[in-house]
Amino acid sequence: MPKNFIITSETELRSQVKRWRVKGKTIALVPTMGALHAGHLSLIAKAKQHADKIVASIYVNETQFAEGEDLDTYPRDHANDCEMLRAAGCDLVYMPKKMYADNHATTINIAGPALGLESEARAHFFAGVALIVTKLFNRVQPDLAVFGEKDYQQLLTIRRLTADLDMPVRILAAPIIREADGLAMSSRNKYFGDEAREIAGRLNVIMQKCAKKISQGADIKISTDKACQQILDAGFEHVDYMAVADANSLALLTGHLTDTPARLLVAAHCQGVRLIDNCALIR
């Protein structure tokens, strides 16, 4: 590894960022929780198109996990992650041992696009995301940050956060990277055995068929209800939601698709693993 490629200290991070700033360099941040795959590397590639220096963070953020979720078992392979980031052209990996002091007492309450959908199943989630993103932005002071469209509601929530709090950080979106059968790449895909993995691959197929019908004029509720049943018939245990929402505000849409840019979003459970996915709807 290059010298100072991996930094764990906030002080060292700020010093390196300052050195880059003195030289007039622009900086992009790609926040991750590790367990990297090609989807993460696509974020690095996107960042390299828009900034001189790329910082990737690796931190499994405890504030976005609720009791009973997979904080302790979340996949971790930091050595491999850092090698992948080096090969992808990342300039610095920020890997703090902790992000919250023992007496940390501040929270962020975010509404707007954070309400509904994911919040119905994981009420804690976006408060934790908003907090860690704010802290990382404060430490790295990037010009821009890149997030994937797979977590579409998270993407819009972070855009709302930066706008509302006057953060001078441009938020760029990178498209979903998929496996050969269409399954959206995710660190949690590592949990699957062969049987579950085959079932999981059916989610995108059903979602895309539903999206096509809605785009061709079918009723949204009838189409999403039918798709939910198809997901269950395919072997999933539960569907948290399948909904059509305004692509900019995430306000839920009903009836028939109009000229309003829209997104079809789904969350479902496959043999103990919760999957999310989404796609654009084009009328």
Characterise this structure.
This protein is an alpha/beta fold and 283 residues long. It folds into two domains: 6-174, HUPs (Rossmann fold); 187-281, Pantoate-beta-alanine ligase, C-terminal domain (Pantoate--beta-alanine Ligase, Chain: A,domain 2, 2-Layer Sandwich). Helices cover 36% and strands 19% of the residues. The chain contains nine helices and nine strands. It has helices at 10-22, 38-48, 78-88, 118-121, 125-140, 152-164, 194-200, 202-215, 220-233, and strands at residues 6-7, 27-32, 53-58, 92-94, 144-148, 170-174, 238-246, 262-270, 273-281. The strands form two sheets. Strands 1-4-3-2-5-6 form a six-stranded parallel sheet, with helices on both faces. The radius of gyration is 19 Å and the shape is globular. It starts with 5 loop residues before the first strand and ends with a strand. The mean pLDDT is 97.
Structural topology:
Elements: E1 6-7, H1 10-22, E2 27-32, H2 38-48, E3 53-58, H3 78-88, E4 92-94, H4 118-121, H5 125-140, E5 144-148, H6 152-164, E6 170-174, H7 194-200, H8 202-215, H9 220-233, E7 238-246, E8 262-270, E9 273-281
Parallel strand pairs: 1-4, 2-3, 2-5, 3-4, 5-6
Antiparallel strand pairs: 7-8, 8-9
Helix pairs in contact: 5-6, 8-9
Summarize the structure.
With 283 residues, the chain is of the alpha/beta class.
Indicate the structural class.
Answer: alpha/beta
Radius of gyration: 19 Å
CATH topology category name of the largest domain: Rossmann fold
- Average of the residue pLDDT scores: 97
Percentage of residues assigned to helices: 25-40%
The number of distinct helices, counting runs of at least 4 residues, comes to 9
